[in-house]
Structures are given as structure tokens and as C-alpha cells.
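Methods — Computational structure assignment.
A single polypeptide chain was analysed. Its primary sequence is given first, followed by the predicted tertiary structure written as C-alpha cells.
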Amino acid sequence: MHVNPFLESTHFLGALFLAVVISLAAPSWAAAVSDVEQRVDDLKSLPVEAKALNDFIYKIDGQGAVFLVNTREGAVLIDVGFNRAQGLAQKALVEQYASGPIRKIILTHFHVDHVGALPVWEEEIAEGLPVITHQRYPYMARIQRELNPFFNRRYKVLYGDLVNSDPDPDLSYWAIEPDRPVYVGQPYRFSLGEVDFEVIAMDNTGEGEDGLMVWLPKQKILFVGDMFGPLYPMFPNLYTVRGEKYRDALDYIDAQDQILALEPEMLVSTHFTVERGAEQIRSSVTRMRDAVQYVWDEVVAGMNAGKTVWQLMNDISLPEEYAVSQGHGKVSWSVRAIWETVAGWYHYDTVANLYPVPVESIYDNVVAAAGGTAPLVEQASERLAADQPVQALRLLDMTQGSPTVDSLALRIRVLDRLLEQAQALRNYSEIGLLKDDRQRTATRLETLGS
């Protein structure tokens, strides 16, 4: 087990990763996994407080951290935090610890936990404080802004009270046009005081198409935003089930190669992680890169061999030498993301999928043909007894239009089994969606039984 001395000395919640390998038999969900101590849930409990990373950089924590880089001629902010309430508290700490006026704001990407507090800097921006983003920031932000009601319904399931339910929310942070867009292959370089900055735009990261990194070449410090996601090291979220565009695996691999080429001696992620030491950084970044390369190679080989996406989702798992946390990104979901990134949504399985008639539209016919709900519940019970809870769930899905006390009670047992299995990876989204289904099922059962 590696413990970063910096984290030990500051009691900071990050980058302490465990060489814990869980070996369970048979199903792919039980593949060996090297996990980390932190969980996505822990982000909600991070207090707003300032921590010195060295003699001129502060990390101001919160749901989304703000980084203050001080120089003799003023300071630079990297990200601005999650929302107005936290942003105001973080801004007060920025003003307390800043060496001078804020000269630039750099946004690492469009996610709300990084940019949601931008309105608290509205006055300074109006007075000329420049905002620097990736060239793709307006595009990625536009999707979130225009589809906000759609995404919020999904986010509410996973993030609960963190979601802004205001019917007319302030989304100005997703409408801003950067003063200085940064293009891939054209780093933006500037100096302030004694500090040189290089803002690097990536094609793709573990969190979308508009990821920026900030490189301090003299100090060999690299700010990566959410390049890797919230946990470190982890398998990237090439597809996040809350909903977003697929992230390209080959672009992600290329981004890791660019990081390795820089040879950073401090690597700073927005959430939890501050890694120190060139060798430790090289080893962990290489592990994440090689994990994605392995999955890419396996998907390509399987597609060329004529395997279905379902077979590959079931069969592909990380060997021990590439095992990293799947507490946020998940290998099986990324397998499908890779497949559909290169080949689209039609899998050449049934031509019925070419038409706007979902399979759910014939569930009532199946129930009728089976002689009612009871035979399907019996079949589902047998599947659960055979340790095939997903097959049991598929059968119970067919009974959703005509539920019974027995079908709903069995569904809860099936979901409990899946929740038990999900503890192998402790994936935040998987567990959150299973719990939501269980709660809704329990409510239906209570209503039906009353």
C-alpha cells in the first residue's frame, strides 16, 4: 500500500489507494479490482477550507475545489466551485489567501461542480477579468443548458438534494463565451510574476470533450481537472449512466501519453487527489492508460471475431496487472461505449430495432401468453435461485404493466441480490440506480398491498 506523505501530513482525503484485490469466482462483475479509499459520496462531505499545496498554491476544497496560484503580480484561479453558496465561501478564502488581484480564471471543463459558482465572480468578469476555457466549452455547455430539465430528472435520481430544482435556474455559467478559447494542439502560454503557465486543451478526457490541463513547467506541477474522474486511480467513465456523450477511448489513451511525456512531479486533480513524486505519478497514469488500452484491444478483437456487445460486456474484465477502481467508471459500460462509439446503436441483432416500437410494447402480450403474471414470477424465482438475478429482472420487467404483490416482492429480492453483488465494485451510479429502483418498487408494493 502506498501512502502519499503529503496527504498523511495534511490529513487530506485523497490519493491514498489500496492494493486490495478482491478475487471472486465466475461472473464478470466479480473480477479482481484494485480499489481506492474515497467514494463519490464523500464529495458531499468535503468542507470549504483552504489547504496549502506548497508555498504559492492553495487548494480551496468543497464539492468542487478551487485552486489559487499566487504570483508576485497577482493570482490565477483554476475552476470556481460548485454553486453560489459554496462559491461565496470559497471566494472569501481566495480573497484571504490571494497574493494580489485575480488576473485570470481558467475553467478545466463544463461540469457544474467546476463552474457553477461562476456567477459569484460576475462583477469582476464584467470589469474585465478574463475567463479561459477549452474551445469546446461553449458546445458542451450548450448541451447541458438546453437539455437542463431532461438531465435534471436523471441527476435527481443519483444526486438527490444536490440538484437545483429551481424551475428557472441561473445557468449563466453555461452561457459564457470565453475571452480566450484554447484549441487542441495550440497551448495557451503566459507568465505572471515568476510563474509560467501553459494551458493545454485535450481532445477528450475521462469527463468530456472540453478538458483543459494547466502545466507549470518550472515547478513540474500539472493540474488535470477531471481528466481521470473523481477517484484516482480509476477506470474512466467512457459512458456515464446519468447521461452524456460517450468519451473516446483512443483520445483518453492519447491524453495519458501526453501527461506521461510531461513527466510531472506533482499531479493535482480537482477531487481528492494530489499525487507527488514522478515515479508514483508515472506508475499510476501508466496503469490507467494500459487498462483502457487492454479493454480497447479486447473489444476490437471481439468485434472482429463476431461476438455480440452483450458477450463482450460479460466477458471482458481487467487482469490483475491493470486493475483500478471501478467506483465511478465501469468496464462493462465502457465496453458498450467503445462498441457504439465506433459502430453506432444498431447491433445487427434484430431488424425490429430499426423501428420506433420498443420491446416493452409487447410485454402485456407475453404476460397473456404465459397465462398471467404468476408463471413469469415463478420463472424469475427459479432464475434468482440459480444466481441469475439479471435474467430474473428481465422476466419481472415484463410484469411491470400488471404487477402483483408476488412480482413486486420478488423484484425487491432480486434488486437486493444485485446490490449485494454491486459491493464488489462499489460503483456509485450502479448502486444509486439499483437503490432507486428498489425504493420505487417498495412504494408500489406498499400501495398495492394496502
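Note: The radius of gyration is 24 Å.
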